[in-house]
Amino acid sequence: MFTKNRIAQSVKLAVMASLSVGATAAMAEEAAGAKVERIAVTGSRIQRQDMETASPVTVISAESIRAEGYTSVDQMLQTQTSMAGAAVGSTTNNGSDGVAQVDLRGMGAQRTLVLLNGRRMVNSGSGADSAVDLNSIPVAMIARVEILKDGASAVYGSDAIAGVVNIITKKDFDGFQFDLNGSGTDKGDGETGELSALYGFNTENGGNYTFGAAYSERRGVIQADRSWTEAGYSSYIPTGTLGGKVRDADGNWVKRTTGYDFTQDSWYQTPSKRYSLFANMVQELSDDLVLNGDVLYTKRKSDQQMAPQPASVMLDVCGEPKADAIRCVTLDQAMLDGGIAADETGRVEYKRRTNDVGPRVYNQDTDTLRASVALQGTLDAGTGMTWDLSYTYGKNKADTWVENSINAVNTANAVYDNQDAFFSGAPLTQDIINQIGYLEETNGGNEQNIVSGVLSGELFDLDAGAVGFAIGAEYRRDSGYYNPDPVIVRGEGTAAQQDPTKGAYDVISIYEEVSVPFSDKLTGEFALRFDDYSTFGKATTWKVGLTYVANDQLMLRTVAATGFRAPNVSELFGGNTQSFDYLEDPWGNEQDAQIKVNYTSDANIQPEESESYTAGLVYSPEFIDGMSMTLDYWRFKVSNAITRLDAQQGLNDCHAGDAAACELFMITADGNLESFTNPLTNVGTQDTSGIDFNLSYNFEALGLDWHINNDLTYLLNFEQDGNDYTNTIDGNFGGYARVRNNLSLKAGGEDWDLMYYNRFIGEMDYLGDGSAVDSVLYHNIVASYHLNDGLSMSVGVKNFTDVKPSYVENGSDGGTVPEVYDTIGRQIYGSVTYKF
């Protein structure tokens, strides 16, 4: 796989030859030399003396995260210009289960690999999850975040198609540090707070032990509490409808003319509480042997709230040939006069918004544990080599509940037994409420085991320098499960039916890298990886990178790579799942914009394949001291993508008479959507490209230290499954703005700093009809003061001008897309840090 052309074959042979020759030379020669400190760079296993590589990497420090008032990793990442789409997070109220994810380039959270200290993090959430829940990583433990913005499957394996987010934790800490952070809106809601403590000490025998604890809480913001919120309009109303008709004050059945505003029950910012414990240790066992490890445990308690459950039941009509003669409803003369009649199956639909029972409250209680231990040593070979043997374990388990769920079977029986109570539109009695409502309970989890070994160092010297290498092997096993409530499994709830998920797979991997200085100016970086999965079989990926240092001011760089994403547990072993998607029924049979679709998985699904290419430059002009610029062109192409078909296109094609589309999506020719199915297949594609630009400038003026940083992403193209999403926004897919820009300006004195940030999201077109969606510009201001060496504090304002989000016609919530725009409004935040 991924080796079908001559270029790929040539690259493989070149890498293999380089490593083989180097290994032979290293065994034949031992060179004694001074030890040089080396560092790990995200995107490579080779230990290096500097950060200069062919791959573009963005580094975000803990100080920057704190200065902008972020209390969760997802909030910080989603403001980066390299993000797009609509990754779920704190503003996702419908269907997120409290999870927060990252979505590089808008290519999907499952295509961005998340590492913790250079090693994989277990997928986490409510069970059998496809990506890492960033809520499991507290901001308090972060030293920096490194974002690798090119494909890295040849180095890290599956999931790194769009890039890698590597979260580096605090270590080698000595002393005690106490942090208190908080924020709230100027409207008196949406409060957040985080309390954390960090303690570390050094030992006389070459060890350091760092321990930390953090507690954070986030309170909710109701959608209707923002004046600009677009009121919701649902055909499910609290008084109920029969055959689409309602009873007026005179007892006549007339056409429904009102809708239900669900924004008064739904969150813009979802509440949560998180408790975290973490530790890092480094212990020298001898001059050439070091033991290190880290452990993280996080408990998350979160909830979302939505409007009371919309209940829809099909009732048999007495006297109809296909109807049940005993359990049925009688259509009286007033109903018949109002146009209420049985359909061809002898039934009539009754719909009700179950306000009597109460709003749907989704609760999650998740526990995530991740531990890693490694033994590292050196070998006296060549100019020195290092080896690393590690074991990483991750486990996530979750219990989730939905309060005030509705049992559809019990509801139908209740209607049959209490027709007057339901059809009158009056509030239901407590006995009926107890009969139709129930507590929905589910559980799930994920588990990961990884054993890995790597040998790296320098093989031999060329005229231009040493040839560096890394070679390693890895065994990984991933498993997951998800058990829906039995009522949901039986399809007896008014919520979507879902089958259980359970499965596991393992993979054995071998990888190798080499860095070759062809000359003083030109360096080549090569990587090759082989993976053998228990599910689909074998995969081979490669990477070639070149850096050319033209002079002290200019470096040119380029990377070409292949990648893959293995199907995850839910894609392989998930049962039928129903989803209510925003679609348009061309037959006009469906009254509600959300149409039920059956999602199916496939145990024989194949891996996705990708190609990526980046080319750019790093420029530090000598005539402007302290300035540096990077400019990079990037392109990612994904084929054989695991995806679902375009359901709207399927509806349209079937309506136009395409019998194959009707059969594939299980739609009848007359538009009956009861069995409407969207299968999971390997037919998807992605093709996206753009330009990243960064300018960083440090200088002194007016007796102050200044720092300017500007990040710009210009999207050239984003196509998926044959559809062009470039510069569009949609409630289902999110936003793919042509221009995203972040600017920061910092001025500092001896004891204080004043910082200004702005974030720009360009104008986009609404995907539905091409109408313009306004651009937005957010302004943030923060001031910090250092009272002494141990005590500092800061205060800031986010969205200083209280810019409202842009209106999106089919927005996922409140007439907009909360995952793209700020729906909370102006926030005031502050922090206090005390270290001793």
From TrEMBL:
It is a multi-pass membrane protein. Its main location: membrane. Residues 348-799 form the TonB-dependent receptor-like beta-barrel domain. Keywords: Cell outer membrane, Membrane, Receptor, Signal, TonB box, Transmembrane, Transmembrane beta strand, Transport. It holds the Pfam family Plug. GO terms for cellular component: cell outer membrane. Residues 51-164 form the TonB-dependent receptor plug domain. Belongs to the TonB-dependent receptor family. This is TonB-dependent receptor. It comes from Shewanella cyperi. The lineage of its organism: Bacteria, Pseudomonadati, Pseudomonadota, Gammaproteobacteria, Alteromonadales.
